[in-house]
Design goal:
Length: about 575
């Protein structure tokens, strides 16, 4: 039986926000990535962190391995948008041509801040003044629109929010933003993960945070809240009951009363990469996770055979624009050590047939209407569950944020025919009047998206070791040579110009001088074509790409944490 869902959006694994551990409840506990479902794990955790009777080894000093040995030229203000009066706008934006022109002549700087630049990489192709501030500089200073501070002391991050708040406060980052902001303009900030502290920082520094309120996103992040909102507008979820259970017998009695059967999926309100999704069929499977279930509000679902589908959307004042549908790459041991852990997406013509795609689009648009009533606007991601036995389409979960799937969403045929999906988010927060025919855009994008093929994989370190990375593959374009070997072709800024399945783009997260541990995101590989077979297994091509990237790493294992004698642990003299 397949899982009903996995939790992808809440965390900072480098994929969806380069590596970081989410803090404890009520927030989700980290994800990836990249993300996210992410990107979740500490950004530079050393060995022995979870051993109660082991001494943590002292980490080797890191000297900003991401910056490179040569000076990096500082970006300067575009002379065409130097201080001066902005052009007078006589009317709102009336069509797609005027919207494209508006962003190609944009003079307000927009910064995407995060552990990595992965999620929105390439958006600067459409939006003038759009650039990236990243903790991990995957290009070592070679990308003209990616800024990373040079001074980065060793810190064990606990969340994506913590990374972003640290970046926004950093003196180098503040100077960089000031240098690129014309007089009279207010810099705009976009992030995957943020909290009320982020809002306070932006208010103090005079930055405009172009996202919904953190408190609203926090509330909508709960699976319980999402389910209740969806129920109120007729958006179906997998048959379920939201309740509390005090014992295995109590759980089964409530499930039987609700007609859910005895093969159950139990979820808590917040979760990461399936880590708070439990499959309960008997007492043993319940007892295994009883501490996380008993006394907590839980969603108890009937277990169905399903195919998880991811889709991103933007809620504008004129309605919800729905992006392309994708399957998810989850749980493959070659990519992630976490059972059910999100590790990428695939987009291809057969993701959904036409009637099902239309039904799923209607579901997302109806959910968007409900979110609008809650005061939400802008970008969000939805996991849709397709019941493979009945063909029914259900809401899986809502992620009120940019997600790891954005990397593919923004290179679709629809994006190049009009504008990338996230640019509609920027439009909603632009402060200008505009008109959109949302029905026409959705109809056209449904048709255009069915012709594209893209995939990406988040490659994690899967061994239970902590190692110092000595050599790592560079960020850029890779090709298959005459012998079928994956070879570095050239440095590149993003994956938007990949033309065939023989090419791939690797975005490195951890490089020489960094550490890798179980669950750490090494990097993200983007390519044309599919990476899974129709039955959901990794293809031979996918395994070859993964093995080839791993083979390009060389690392030195840290010595195992030394066991501490009990007398040393508790401060007593050794026993004779």
């Amino acid at each position: 039986m397949a899982r009903t869902q996995k939790d992808k959006g809440s965390a900072p694994a480098p994929a969806e926000e380069a590596a970081a551990v989410k803090r404890s409840a009520p927030r989700r506990r980290a994800a990836s990535a990249a993300a996210a479902k992410a990107p979740v794990t500490p950004v530079a955790k050393t060995a022995g962190a979870s051993r109660s009777r082991a001494r943590k080894p002292v980490p080797m000093p890191t000297t900003s391995a991401n910056t490179g040995p040569l000076p990096v030229a500082a970006p300067t203000l575009d002379p065409e948008i130097a201080p001066g009066e902005p052009p007078v706008r006589r009317h709102g934006l009336r069509n797609m041509s005027e919207i494209r022109h508006f962003f190609r002549t944009n003079r307000t700087p927009i910064f995407f801040v995060g552990a990595s630049s992965f999620n929105l990489l390439g958006l600067d192709r459409w939006v003038r003044g759009f650039s990236y501030i990243a903790y991990y500089d995957s290009w070592q200073g070679a990308h003209p629109r990616v800024f990373s501070p040079i001074h980065k002391p060793y810190i064990e991050w606990e969340s994506g929010e913590q990374i972003n708040n640290w970046l926004l406060r950093h003196h180098e980052v503040r100077a960089h933003i000031a240098r690129l902001t014309p007089a009279g303009e207010k810099p705009r900030i976009a992030l995957v993960f943020f909290d009320e502290e982020t809002e306070a920082i932006c208010e103090e520094l005079g930055y405009e945070l172009i996202l919904p309120k953190a408190s609203l996103r926090e509330r909508l992040d709960s699976k319980m809240v999402t389910t209740r909102i969806a129920d109120s507008v007729g958006v179906p979820s997998v048959p379920n009951v939201i309740t509390k259970a005090e014992s295995f017998e109590d759980l089964m009695a409530q499930a039987e009363k609700a007609g859910l059967g005895s093969d159950l999926v139990v979820q808590t309100a917040y979760g990461d990469s399936g880590k708070t999704t439990y499959f309960v069929t008997d007492r043993a499977s319940f007892d295994k996770n009883a501490a996380d279930v008993i006394g907590h509000e839980i969603k108890v679902m009937k277990r169905i055979n399903n195919r998880p589908i991811a889709v991103e959307a933007v809620l504008t004042r004129h309605g919800t624009i729905v992006g392309p549908f994708m399957t998810e790459i989850t749980g493959h041991k070659e990519l992630t050590p976490y059972r059910g852990g999100w590790a990428g997406n695939e987009m291809f013509p057969g993701v959904l047939d036409e009637p099902t795609r239309h039904a799923a689009t209607s579901l997302v648009r109806k959910l968007g209407d409900a979110l609008s009533a809650e005061g939400y606007r802008g970008f969000f991601e939805v996991d849709v569950l397709l019941d493979t036995d009945t063909g029914d389409v259900y809401l899986g979960e809502l992620n009120p944020r940019i997600s790891g799937a954005s990397a593919i969403t923004n290179v679709t045929a629809g994006a190049y025919a009009d504008i990338p999906l996230f640019v509609f988010h920027l439009l909603e927060f632009s402060g200008v009047e505009f008109d959109l025919d949302v029905d026409e855009i959705n109809d056209r994008w449904e048709e255009l998206a069915a012709a594209d093929q893209w995939s990406h994989m988040i490659i994690k370190h899967t061994d239970p070791t902590v190692e110092h990375i000595d050599v790592a593959p560079p960020t850029g374009r890779y090709v298959l040579d005459a012998y079928g070997r994956l070879a570095f072709s050239q440095g590149d800024l993003d994956w938007h110009l990949l033309g065939s399945e023989s090419e791939s783009f690797f975005l490195r997260i951890y490089g020489p001088g960094d550490y890798r541990w179980k669950g750490a995101d090494l990097g993200i590989l983007v390519t044309k074509g599919r990476l899974q077979t129709p039955t959901g297994r990794l293809s031979i091509r996918a395994k070859h790409l993964i093995e080839s990237i791993r083979a390009m790493y060389a690392a030195t294992p840290l010595p195992p944490a030394a066991e501490i004698d009990e007398h040393e642990q508790i401060g007593t003299e050794p026993t004779p």
